[in-house]
Design a protein that fits this description.
The protein has 675 residues and is of the alpha+beta class. It has 21 helices and 27 strands. The chain has an 8-stranded mixed sheet with strand order 5-4-3-6-2-1-7-8. Strands 9, 10, 11, 13, 14 and 16 form a 6-stranded mixed sheet that branches. Strands 21-22-23-27 form a 4-stranded antiparallel sheet. The chain binds adenosine-5'-diphosphate and magnesium ion (MG).
């Protein structure tokens, strides 16, 4: 007896609808995409009760004639592709010809449409997939679709819907994506008879972002450094370093105008931000990738949320480069605000500042003294104060803070390998001069009680003479104003350094700042000289679960390069006989932490650099200046200088901000001087 039968058209549609129509937000997505494909300039979306009771989308697009209005309700009816060939060249949002019949099969559906030039339009009423009425109608040119009682004929489906509020949020998010993706289209959103927003069409993405997300978010964005190569173009806006969210809701990426979710893209973005992003946080992006549609498969997911790239690696690399360059240019812009502090301040602010007792502010340090200062950073027992050798801290308290900072700019624009060692940030840091790697050793005994810093070896100071020699060799930097000009006003709560710069007040978290400095120094050091390791007196063995063993085995070479002496020692067992010098503590625990931390972050790609970064970031925190450490002025000055010389000065290696700028503008608003 035969058991197989063909499903009725109605049931087949309902089955298909399961894929496309998950909830009210999916209906909104499909309808709005259709409107945009129909060249609408204005789309109005109305929902009632989270879209469960009513969704109405009205557009001023091309409209349809009567036969199309009927045909569009058939499955696999589309005006957007004709042959399989066309699948490789899709520039429209839709192409599957499934949305309308699917939606109409699970709701009370009404379509009114009129072509622009037609005298009369068409109205079609469908209930649960059955056409009930076809008549003249559709007064305005364009298309209006009403979807009532979603899933009224599929109670099981309806039960899966969440509360009206939740469904409304999903709709809102969906519309948000469409509105950002298509700034040239005006959007009106009405929810339960309340107009939530009316967005005018615009040619400027940032205007749309501001209209939709508010000026605060818009102010945290940087225009992405435009990438263009081999038919791939990336543009848009990116959150500044340190700007992040705990969800991906604001990580918007559009591929040929379609909002997509794609792990290659997420990884590329994360990698680009790397230490500018807090752990577990996601970047804020409004990025538009435009590429040859043949190089990407958008037909992977029924709702077309996911895509598959033919050459994922190049997309990822392009994204990394875009993010890095964007952050880098922001860093330049930021450091410029430290170049002419007092002059840019409003007059009243300046006079107030000068009338306050400012003798404590550090002053112009002659270049020779300054070099000593800079290169001795590590020689100075940083904290506590009473331990400092007076000879290494020039008395600068009576002068103005105008510190010549010739290296910073050179460093940014030059590839590190080409720079003389003496002007690389790392070379003046904690490890001492590169010619003295032996200085990486357990801390001198006299400092053993200094828990916060003692595990760091303090390098031999770089001879000051190296700096002048190195300078002319630096690649030509235009004769810019290379001075960092800032004024340290004081320290708040033994943690926050208060400073004045061109834009106003800057608060620096001294602990986070020091973390960033140490981090970059150690990283640089690691890249140029490899990782100093220390053999364990007694090698230990570690037993790990199979999935960890697998991860370890695959990443052994990277781990070994990063200074971890680890090798297989029987099934599921590993032997550790050396650790990087900067890692302290129980070797087994260290390795376990590394596995836990890195397995997720590097699920797809573990670069040697990234591994090293993660390890360093983990350790610097413990060794950086503590919140309550009292820093004397010359040390503060140096801390700030070193921070400003960092590649990514405004956040610590964990992505927390190191500095907060409070502009004169904000202050004036707060004090009611400005509306
Ligand atoms: P697809 O968008 O994949 O082609 P749909 O089921 O969403 O499939 O729509 C079917 C067809 O109906 C579209 O190809 C288009 O020609 C037409 N259509 C749908 N919505 C509109 C609209 N708002 N304005 C004009 N034409 C529309
Ligand atoms: Mg469609």
């Amino acid at each position: 007896m035969s058991r197989i039968h063909l499903l009725s058209e109605e049931v087949a549609s309902q089955v298909a609808a399961g894929e496309v129509v998950e909830r009210p937000a999916s209906v909104v997505k499909e309808l709005v995409e259709n409107s945009i494909d129909a060249e609408a300039k204005r789309v109005e979306v109305l929902i009632r009760r989270g879209g469960i009771s009513l969704i109405r989308v009205v557009d001023d697009g091309t409209g349809m004639d009567r036969s199309d209005a009927l045909l569009c309700l058939e499955r696999h009816a589309t005006s957007k592709i004709r042959t399989g060939h066309d699948l490789a060249a899709i520039m429209t949002l839709g192409f599957r010809g499934e949305a309308l019949p699917s939606i109409a099969s699970v709701s009370r559906f009404q379509l009114s449409t009129r072509e622009r030039s037609a005298l009369a339009g068409t109205e079609v009423i469908v209930h649960g997939g059955k056409i009930e009425t076809v008549r003249d109608g559709g007064d305005a040119p364009g298309t209006q679709i009403e979807v009532r009682s979603l899933f009224y004929n599929l109670p099981a489906r309806r039960k899966f819907l969440r509360t009206e509020t939740t469904e409304a949020h999903h709709v809102e998010h969906q519309l948000h994506l469409q509105a950002i993706g298509h700034p040239d289209v005006g959007f009106v959103f009405v929810q339960d008879d309340r107009t939530v927003y009316q967005l005018p069409p615009t040619n400027h993405l940032l205007d749309r972002i501001r209209d939709l997300c508010g000026p605060a978010l818009a102010g945290e964005l940087l225009e992405a450094h435009e990438f263009e190569s081999a038919g791939l173009r990336i543009r848009g806006f990116l959150g500044r370093a340190g700007v992040s969210r705990s969800t991906r809701q604001q990580q918007l990426v559009f591929l040929n105008g379609r909002a997509i979710e794609n792990t290659t893209v997420s990884h590329g973005l994360r990698e680009g931000y790397h230490t500018a992003l807090m752990k577990g946080q996601h970047p804020v992006t409004f990025l538009f990738i435009d590429m040859d549609p043949a190089a990407v498969d958008v037909n992977v997911h029924p709702a077309k949320r996911e895509v598959r790239f033919r050459d994922g690696a190049s997309i990822r690399d392009a994204l990394i480069e875009t993010v890095r360059r964007t952050l880098e240019s922001d860093r330049d812009a930021w450091s410029r605000t430290f170049h002419s502090a007092p002059s840019a301040a409003p007059a009243f602010a300046r006079s107030a500042a000068t009338s306050l007792p400012m003798q404590e502010t550090p002053a112009l340090i002659p270049e020779d003294e300054q070099t000593a200062l800079r290169h001795d950073w590590t020689k100075l027992p940083l904290y506590p104060a009473e331990k400092r050798g007076a000879e290494s801290v020039p008395d600068v308290s009576a002068r103005r803070s105008e510190i010549v900072e010739p290296e910073a700019e050179a460093f940014i624009s030059a590839p590190a390998e080409d720079l003389p060692a003496a002007i690389k940030p790392a070379s003046r840091g904690i490890f001492g001069s590169p010619s003295a790697p032996a200085s990486i050793a357990p801390a001198p005994a006299e400092r053993a009680d200094d828990a916060g810093t003692s595990s760091y070896a303090i390098g031999a100071p770089t001879p000051p003479a190296e700096t002048p020699a190195a300078k002319p060799a630096a690649p030509a930097v235009e004769e810019k104003d290379n001075k960092t000009d800032f004024k340290i006003l004081g320290v708040l709560g033994k943690l926050y350094v208060l400073m004045e710069n061109a834009s106003g007040l800057v608060l620096v978290d001294q602990h986070a700042a020091h973390e960033r400095i140490l981090f970059e120094e150690m990283l640089q050091r690691m890249e140029t000289q490899g990782v100093p390791t220390q053999r364990l007196l007694l090698p230990i063995t570690l037993q790990v679960p199979p999935k960890d063993a697998d991860w370890l085995t695959r990443h052994l070479p990277e781990l070994q390069r990063a200074g971890l002496g680890v090798e297989p020692f029987g099934p599921g067992t590993f032997k550790i006989d050396a650790l990087p010098t900067f890692l302290r503590g129980d070797a087994a625990q260290v390795l376990r932490d590394i596995i836990d931390d890195l397995r997720e972050t590097s699920a797809t790609q573990t670069s040697k650099l990234r591994l090293g970064e993660e390890m360093i970031a983990k350790t610097v925190c413990r060794h950086a200046v503590k919140a309550n450490d009292y820093l004397r002025e010359p040390e503060l000055v140096r801390l700030i200088q070193d921070l400003l010389a960092c590649e990514l000065p405004y956040c610590c290696p964990h992505g927390r901000p190191t500095m907060i700028q409070i502009s004169y503008n904000e202050l004036e608003k707060k004090f009611g001087r400005k509306a």
